[in-house]
Amino acid sequence: MATIQQINGDYYGSKETLTEALPLIKKKDIYSASINNFFGIADKELSIYTDAIYYYEQALKDCSDPVSKLGALNNIAVVYILQKKYDKAISLLERIIHTKTLDNKFLKSNKARVLDNLGYAYFKKGLNKKGLLLMNEGYKMREQNEDLYGSIESNLHLAEYYSNTEPENSNQYAESAYQIATKFNSIDERLKALSFIISNDSGTKTGEYAQKYVFLNDSIIKIRNNYKNKFAKIKYDSKKEKDENQKLRLEKAEDSLALQKAEYQRIFLTIGIASLFCLIAYLIKRHQNKTRLVEFKTAYATETRIAKDIHDELANDVFHAITYTQTQPLTSENSKETLLQKLNHIYSRVRGISRENSNVDTGSNYSVNLKEMLSTYNSSITNVIITNIEKVNWDSIEYEKKVTIYRVLQELMVNMKKHSEARLVVIKFDSKLNSVIIDYTDNGKGCDKSKIIKNGLQNMENRILATKGTITFDTQPDKGFKAKITLPK
């Protein structure tokens, strides 16, 4: 599923699906290597280069055969080139090209790719002659192997090489890349090839190519957005069908059990036992009514919170986006880009509200999910540091307390994001014999202790007290905010 999403350009959705696959991994093997490799691809395409290298290195550790290891090393080198760390890329690719593994006749396409990347790295470093020699060697090898798809990258690299010195040569390679990419319906490569042709200003056809570029760029944005919505609906419908089937099986099992009970009752039960069952049924009904009332109150509280979040966080943004479309000329590229940024910001807000109100997984993957939730508040402004979370034996902690910890920390992070303006947040976990201790510290603007209830922290205290725990706050204006949570195991 994650592969399909990446093919269609949905890299954030792909990472979510890959995260769902992680709990299914029982050992380090080709599957864990594949998952880490796809994480690396997604982060590379999203220009999150540090994370991409991390995941490629994890994939490298899980690879068991030399060919897979070479693929992971090549991917790391490609990211180094994107980071302009050409010396690192060259050193790594030189090491790959001199391995005996690439001498295998069945790995010529791999060798051609490494040669092309090595030549491109030399070219980007300024060693043009050596770079051109290697890129041409990789290109010829790809032609001999009839590796059409791989030759797209070679053509694009050569088009870039000649773009500043020999525009005609650059156009020839760019047009070749465009034709092959069109054959394979590879939109991103077509756009890159068109950008070279347009920048070279080849003449009368420049306007035609520019129109193609605009058309392709607009089309791919619409198609990928539609695909994301379609994929989300498919996943939702699939889960709904699965839940309904499971419910049907349970109902059938319950019906079968009820028939058996009825059969035994007709044989063995007396009028007195029947009366007892009536009493039990009454008590069960009463308990169910009480449970439904609690569930209703919980649902009402959740709906109220969501409604407040939507009103406070989204209403103004949506209004500004609507006003922008009514007052700005959307034919302008700058206007389109600004509108897309506004819509993407709104989309991120909606995702955040959804995440804050989703169910908490308290199973074996609890600590991973908790750490991931806290890490989502990392940003270019705020650095979140999480320590010693692995030292806590989460399996020994009750379900309700895990949910309480998750929600209280989530509320602390939301409160920090809305009010604190903190640049650094540190969350430290500690496990004693009979208790779990969590220390939260940030260097934000703090507040007056008397106004803590107004900032929504009273709700956290109520949650902790309900599980027989304690929470204390320490804050002063312009001196940060601290909280200490202690929960019995």
TrEMBL record:
Quickly give the catalysed reaction: ATP + protein L-histidine = ADP + protein N-phospho-L-histidine
Ranges annotated as spanning the membrane? 267-284
Q: Which InterPro entries match?
A: HATPase_C_sf (IPR036890), Sensor_HK_TwoCompSys (IPR050482), TPR-like_helical_dom_sf (IPR011990)
The protein's UniProt keywords, in alphabetical order, are:
ATP-binding, Kinase, Membrane, Nucleotide-binding, Transferase, Transmembrane, Transmembrane helix, Two-component regulatory system
EC number, UniProt record: 2.7.13.3
Please indicate which superkingdom the organism of origin belongs to.
Answer: Bacteria
GO BP, sorted A to Z: phosphorelay signal transduction system
The record, for PANTHER family, names: NITRATE/NITRITE SENSOR PROTEIN NARX-RELATED, NITRATE_NITRITE SENSOR PROTEIN NARQ
Q: What is this protein called?
A: histidine kinase
